[in-house]
Amino acid sequence: MQSNSALEYDYSIAKLFLFATVAFGIIGLLLGVIIAFQMAFPNLNYLAGEFGTFGRLRPLHTNGIIYGFTLSGIWATWYYVGQRVLKISYNEYPFLRFIGYLHFCLYILLMILAVISLFAGLTQSKEYSELVWPLDLLVVIVWVLWGFSLFGSMALRREQTIYITLWYFIATFVAISALYIFNNLSIPTYFVSGVGSILHSISFYAGTNDAMIQWWFGHNAVAFVFTSGIIGIIYYFLPKESGQPIFSYKLTLFSFWGLMFVYIWAGSHHLIYSTVPDWMQTMGSIFSVVLILPSWGTAINMLLTMKGQWHQLKESPLIKFLILASTWYMLTTLEGPIQSIKSVNALAHFTDWIIGHVHDAALGWVSFTIIAACYHMTPRLFKREIYSKNLMDIQFWIQSAAIVLYFSSMWIAGITQGMMWRATDEFGSLAYSFIDTVTVLMPYYVIRAIGGALYFLGFIIFTYNIIMTIVASRELEREPNYATPMAA
């Protein structure tokens, strides 16, 4: 067995998930751009027949970004960071390496089957849980394999302290394990009646109960993938890249446990003014507002980590990505609770303001954090200098401008929708028809599509920079301690 100082980490699995992150990012964003233009120019829905319509492409977009791009980024980080903070190497433990390879292979198989089934229109019709029941079983297997890797590595660790990043990864694993299984409990109809498709099933729950379970999971898919998993990433890479210790360990404890206890009960804010009991709607609103505290605790902890080191924002594009990601996290975790207040929700629900909120988080917080993690990991995985610092800067400003176009257009469109839907004439009748609102919103949909296209362009620049780093950049003799080495 090797000594701690002589450890040679096995990054082969991290590399595979890095490639998957980039690939799913391109696919997910491209689909998003296509459907954004379909909203702005409806005739585009008919160019590719039924398989190219908004209804077919939208679940592919959401699943591709959440379970493709984001999870691949989290798992690339795990297979890179896990060995380092636990002081183990997969070279020492071939079984853990085997689990990692099996995890990746079954995950890619699952994603291929997901694409095929969703393109074919096979779906459970549940938000973020569209996959048919046989694929749900494969999801469980893939998730359990990550659990084996996660807890198996911890059992063999040399470093006794479990670093903050792993707290959040454990939370992601445990919460999604329970929530996904309960939400996807279903009865395959073929085995009951002997007729119909073998892939068809009905939910184990009915009516209002099904809605409550669905949004208990649906909102917490955001909580424990987009939030806890991404917080885990930034807690490692911001201190590592800046060379600064985390500002406050006590604030870390408060934020972690506050997030765990509060976030899981906020999902019913999706069901305000529905048949769900009023007390549950109120509980969802209250917990959503309280959620500001641990969310801002994390973001403030990140920003204050840079105390006295703000000059790094000018010097390092990677620090720019991480700091702006934290800033977007603050904004989105204020915006979401505001939207969950009943009086505000009466205006905002079902409008494009909600779409704007989701993409503030996905584009500004989640994607920027994963992009920064990839930029940090790539020189260390492949022992090569980042190909171009200038391209990183260009990408950052293009994507930042894209997010501004996206959220501003959707905020204006959403509030316009809400006001028009509520407007009445002197007789108390609705002042506008639904098509009136659609007509008014078309310019904002065009702006949203342009913003999405710009963001996609930035991601293409990122992909090019990563590929050129791997194949054409200067080799590094040793791993840098802190800042990622970058060419001009």
Automatic annotation (TrEMBL):
Its main location: membrane. The keyword Transcription regulation does not apply. InterPro entries: Cyt_c_oxase-like_su1_dom, Cyt_c_oxase-like_su1_sf, Cyt_C_Oxase_1, Cyt_c_Oxase_su1_BS, Cyt_c_oxidase_cbb3_su1. It is found in: Cell membrane. It comes from the Bacteria. The chain crosses the membrane at residues 16-41, 62-81, 101-123, 135-156, 162-182, 213-238, 247-266, 286-306, 318-334, 354-375, 396-415, 454-472. GO terms for molecular function: cytochrome-c oxidase activity; heme binding; metal ion binding; oxidoreductase activity. One of its GO terms (cellular component) is plasma membrane. It catalyses: 4 Fe(II)-[cytochrome c] + O2 + 8 H(+)(in) = 4 Fe(III)-[cytochrome c] + 2 H2O + 4 H(+)(out). Binds 2 heme groups per subunit, denoted as high- and low-spin. Cu cation binds at residues 219, 269-270. The keyword rRNA-binding does not apply. Heme b 1; low-spin binds at residues 61, 359. Pathway: Energy metabolism; oxidative phosphorylation. It is a multi-pass membrane protein. GO terms for biological process: electron transport coupled proton transport; oxidative phosphorylation; respiratory electron transport chain. Heme b 2; high-spin binds at residue 357. Keywords: Cell membrane, Copper, Electron transport, Heme, Iron, Membrane, Metal-binding, Oxidoreductase, Respiratory chain, Translocase, Transmembrane, Transmembrane helix, Transport. Its EC number is 7.1.1.9. Residues 13-488 form the Cytochrome oxidase subunit I profile domain. Pfam families: COX1 (PF00115). Its cofactor is heme b; heme; Cu(2+). It is an enzyme of class 7 (translocase). Belongs to the heme-copper respiratory oxidase family. This is cytochrome-c oxidase. It comes from Helicobacter apodemus.
